[in-house]
Amino acid sequence: MCGRYAITSAPEAIRALFRYPERPNFPPRYNVAPTQPVPIVRLTESERHFALVRWGLIPAWVKDPKNFALLINARGESVQDKPAFKNAMKRRRCLFPADGFYEWKTEGGRRRAFHLRKAGGGPIAFAGLWETWIGPNGEEIDTAAIVTTEANREMGAVHHRAPVILPPEQFDLWLDDRSEVAAAAGLIAPAPDGSMEVYEVSSAVNKVANDSPDLIEPCSAPAEAEPRKPTARQKRVADSGQGSLF
């Protein structure tokens, strides 16, 4: 799954990759957490645009968000069928700019944090879904979730799920709501083996208040080469279509 991630590239580098007209000037973020405002890229009148939304999707039909589970991830295998995601999958797909994300692995009673990023570094795009929730007093909240799939070889060494990472040549198909939803769903797949690098980082990332460059610095040996099998709890969380903070 994906419960924390980082956006560290310069704003112009991200703008060059996603090709939106806005020129937002935002600082690097090394520990993005659910419910925080996050940047996404979506289509408006057939053009890409930058927007800030809340990370944690609220379907339009929800009456009271306080009584609704936090949906930070959308399981890719069921986004066309799950009531919380199927409308967004048809009409409101987006991209999450990022430079990497974090996962945790428990070994010997100790929880180890890992950073996962594109081999060689640089900005990447997570597939996402967004919705606008309108409250009883007319208030509007734009929210979004990251689409996940099976992890590739490198990422599977830490966790069996990972964000869907789209290459630039797939951006248009994913974003365009005029395309057949089945064609967009066909992009939901693990990243190619060898395309990602994984390394252990400090447990300081566990605290949301920590947000500094040292969070993505390697602190130990790289993750093991062979993927581990998911625990029973991980399978239950994955099947629910939700993620957790850790």
CATH architecture grouping = Alpha-Beta Complex
Based on DSSP secondary structure assignment, what is the total number of beta strands?
Answer: 12
Order of helices and strands: EHEEEEHEEEEEHEHHEH
Largest sheet: 7 strands, mixed
Radius of gyration: 17 Å
Distance between the termini: 9 Å
* Name of the CATH class: Alpha Beta
CATH superfamily: SOS response associated peptidase-like
Query: Roughly how much helix do the residues carry, as a percent range?
Result: 10-25%
The mean pLDDT is 90
Brief digest:
The protein is α+β, with helices and mostly antiparallel strands. The chain has one domain (4-240): hypothetical protein yedk fold.
Please give a structural write-up.
15% of the residues lie in helices and 33% in strands. It is of the alpha+beta class and 246 residues long. It has one domain (4-240): Alpha-Beta Complex (hypothetical protein yedk fold). The strands form 2 sheets. Strands 3, 4, 5, 6, 9, 10 and 11 form a 7-stranded mixed β-sheet that branches. Strands 2-1-7-8-12 form a 5-stranded antiparallel β-sheet, with no helix packed on it. The chain is globular, with a radius of gyration of 17 Å. The termini are close together. Mean pLDDT is 90; it is low at 222-246.
Q: How is the topology of this model organized?
A:
Blueprint (H helix, E strand, L loop, with lengths): L3 E4 L3 H8 L10 E4 L4 E8 L2 E9 L17 E3 L10 H6 L1 E6 L1 E8 L2 E9 L5 E11 L5 E11 L2 H4 L4 E3 L7 H5 L5 H5 L10 E6 L30 H9 L6
Parallel strand pairs: 4-10, 5-10
Antiparallel strand pairs: 1-2, 1-7, 3-4, 6-9, 7-8, 8-12, 9-10, 10-11
